[in-house]
Amino acid sequence: MKAISYSRYGTADVLEYGERPDPKVGPDSVLVKVRAAAVNPVDWKAREGYLQAGLEAVFPVIPGWDVSGVVVQPGAAVYEFEVGDEVIGYVREDFLSRGTFAEYVAAPVRTLARKPLGLSFEEAAGLPLCGLTAYQVLHRVLKVRNGETVLVHAAAGGVGSLAVQLARHAGCRVVGTAGPHNHDYVRRLGGEPVEYGDGLAGRLRELVPGGFDAAFDTVGGEALRVSAQTLASDGRLASIADAEVFSYGGHYAFVRPDAQELAHLAELAEQGIISVHVDRVFPLEQAAEAYRLNEQGRTRGKIVVTVGEES
Fold first, then answer.
1. Which residue, of 2, 113, 171, 267, has the fewest CB within 10 Å?
2. pTM over 0.85
3. What SS3 state is found at 1?
4. Is the peptide bond before 23 cis (omega within 30 degrees of 0)?
């Protein structure tokens, strides 16, 4: 099969497009013909070696954890899916090697759900990792409740945009940081946009004088510090970007696959409660360019790589 892979840690320059062996399908997995795979910051951080303390790399590594596609072969113990089923998945194992930037991926059923009706394969590929991250942080870690006020950083990004929508669905008031060019987009999602940068803490205090009930940091650094400064006295803080959150009494979160939660997100997408904005689409052979664009950190929604047929 054709795939993107890398044989050593490094920049996007180490990514190669070429032939890789077809994946073997274990009893609890299905073989998925990949139609689209989304780019996530964690992908290039893993490629550059930042996750090697917790995730061993078995080179050569095919990157990518997000996928949408079609089941072509169920494993011997699989009853959840049949040939022809359209699926989405956050296909993460406990090591780096068999990712989704390929024509086929062998995906454990614990990582999959049915693709939402009405979403293109490109849109659907952008839902699993970001959607599960937003859902798990909001509901498992921060435990947001109806009527609370929530701060979401990078509210126009992949995780942030879904966090805004999910928090609004939970009955929260949502304030989201974003550049001025994304303020209308954040409003359409249901959030109140605030420009990041110098003076952010003052702008947030003016909007929410009593402090935030919960803050969701997706950036780290100064954004995390400002989050801690603008919390209510009993406010909760979580970060997916900066372990320094522990020093502020907060929680560091790393998303994990959950088929039931992913199915719930798919239902919300089918109902029009949440949506995925696709910023740019690249063919598989140009995946390195897709990663370089993602690394600039200015994406609205998702960057997606397509494989095979157009959706």
1. 171
2. yes
3. coil
4. no
